[in-house]
Amino acid sequence: MSIQIPCPHCGPRPIEEFAFGEILAVPDQITDPDERDIDRAFMHNNPEGPQREAWFHTYGCRRWVTLTRDTRTDQII
Amino acid sequence: MNEFQEKLVNFKWVEPKKTYDVIIIGGGGHGLATAYYLATRHNITNVAVLERNYIGGGNSGRNTTVIRSNYGIPEAVRFYQRSVELYQTLEDETERWIMHAQKGILWMAHGETAVRAEKARAEINTAFGAKTVFVTPKEIKEICPEVDLTGGGVWPIMGGSYHPEAATARHDRVNWALAEGAMKRGVHVHQNTAVTNLIKSGNRVIGVETTAGPMHANVVMSAVGGHVTGLAALAGLRLPIRTHPLQAFVTNHYEQKFHPIVASTSLLTYVSQTARGEMLIGAEIDRQPSYSYRSGHHFLQTCAHRAMTMLPFLRQLRILRQWTGVCDMSPDYSPIMGFTGVDGFVLTTGWGTWGFKAIPAGGEQMAQLIATGETPELIAPFALDRFAQDRTMADRGSAGTH
Ligand SMILES: Cc1cc2nc3c(=O)[nH]c(=O)nc-3n(C[C@H](O)[C@H](O)[C@H](O)COP(=O)(O)OP(=O)(O)OC[C@H]3O[C@@H](n4cnc5c(N)ncnc54)[C@H](O)[C@@H]3O)c2cc1C
Ligand SMILES: [Zn+2]
After folding, report:
1. CB contact under 8 A, A44 and B239
2. Domain B19-63+171-241+331-398 falls in which CATH fold?
3. Is B287 part of the contact surface with chain A (CB cutoff 8 Å)?
4. Which of B162, B264, B299, B336 would staple B108 via disulfide (CB 3.0–4.6 Å)?
């Protein structure tokens, strides 16, 4: 079965109905403004574990859903 | 060479030492090839490849083995052409039967824009050393009689590009040939040995902590596929990599007569036949970044449907098995190779869904970089600092699927 995204408006729906939205987080240790821009433009946290992320319900209510998913198992926590 | 001529592979497993000249993390194709070329081209044999699982257990043993150089930007065409050529001689060089088979790839165009794109591909390939020609629907039918030129009435084929040097090879055998060739010359390969941390002295990486104890080296290279973000973070590096699953599947046996590799950018799928007679079919990455090896029904359904649009005979076949790998996707669909700004630490990543074909050239060039301390010209465009310098190597149309 597809991964199910729990949409607060539509209930659990298959991931194929959604578009992925990464929540960018430039680490605080990077202080130089140019380096922060580069990080924001290109770099990813890409964690192997729980990740905060957003999904846009393209083929549904067309609202954003924010959740935490474990990228090792795809389980939504 | 063939199965009757070959000897059994001969791996020499030994106990780990405390220090090496070079430590390579990851026993996939890129790690093993780098060790192989360090030993064969530079006589550097005090090298260890550390693999946390078994060699070729990552993407290098899970891919659909398409080898080709028909890329969309000059830097990539040159680099992949080098790899295509190294693959052509790898069998003789290693005296191992890697089942290298030249098949040619047909890249279908289903509309005016796609026709222009495939004509442009042929031009740019020819200009930078790869053999690619534009072909008409009639010529396509001659190369691949199984194709439905009407595309099921939905995706008519209006032309395409043909790249005759495209090939496939048995992935496990490539990994084994390189491992054996390196080990024969004194390189250590340690399986079931995970790197758990990097040992640093100031801003210099001087070794690794492993499940088999600490080991020191002058140069440490990361070749860990989809797991690179966590490893690079140990060196204090941030990477433009996102890890995505990529799936593929094979059907049951079909009469051994399907010759070429067939691909389509519009349909985001590609098809070839394995030496066992299975039809091998792949697609683009899953949308969610993930390290999970789960395979899904949705992928099978949509991918099979698109492949059958071009090749209706697939309808008669059954799906035998499917699998997944986790890919180190770079934002510009080009690899990232070389120095990192951290002394003693080099990496090879961004191999995404397209790095099997690059194993020989990637290994050869990284070996040269390590041996000489300088970036070879062929891979200079693919350095990590290109992002900060706004010199990305965008080539999604050529690398998006395989
Ligand atoms: C389904 C699929 C189809 C594909 N099709 C094609 C294709 O047709 N053509 C093509 O060119 N490419 C293709 N690719 C891409 C290709 O497989 C990869 O780009 C290539 O194999 C990458 O090789 P690698 O050596 O960098 O990584 P890998 O082969 O993944 O090797 C990395 C190794 O590092 C090990 N490792 C990770 N972390 C650690 C650690 N901490 N310590 C020790 N070891 C560690 C892993 O266990 C693994 O064995 C495909 C990929 C997939 C998944
Ligand atoms: Zn919804």
Report:
1. yes
2. FAD/NAD(P)-binding domain (3.50.50)
3. yes
4. B264
pLDDT tens, N- to C-terminus, chain B (402 residues)? 666 666 678 898 999 999 999 999 999 999 999 999 999 999 999 999 999 999 999 999 999 999 999 999 999 999 999 999 999 999 999 999 999 999 999 999 999 999 999 999 999 999 999 999 999 999 999 999 999 999 999 999 999 999 999 999 999 999 999 999 999 999 999 999 999 999 999 999 999 999 999 999 999 999 999 999 999 999 999 999 999 999 999 999 999 899 999 999 899 999 999 999 999 999 999 999 999 999 989 999 999 999 999 999 999 999 999 999 999 999 999 999 999 999 999 999 999 999 999 999 999 999 999 999 999 999 999 999 999 999 999 998 887 788
Ligand 1 nearest-atom number relative to CA B326 = 53
The answer to whether the beta carbons of residues B170 and B136 sit under 8 Å apart is no
pTM for the model stands at 0.97
**Which residues of chain A lie closer than 8 angstroms to B287, CB-CB?**
15-16, 18-20
ipTM of the complex: 0.96
Report the CATH number of the B105-164+243-326 domain.
3.30.9.10
B8-18 b/e (C-beta count within 10 Å ≥ 16 → b):
eeeeeeeeeee
Name chain B contacts of A40, Cβ cutoff 8 Å: none
B152 C-alpha to center of ligand 1: Å? Answer: 35
Residue B168 in contact with ligand 1 by CB distance below 6 A? no
**Considering the domain A4-76 in this protein, what is its CATH number?**
3.30.2270.10
Each domain of chain A, given as residue ranges in start order, spans 4-76
Length of chain A equals 77
* Distance, CA of B307 to CA of B90 (rounded, Å): 31
Chain A nearest-CA residue for B229: A46
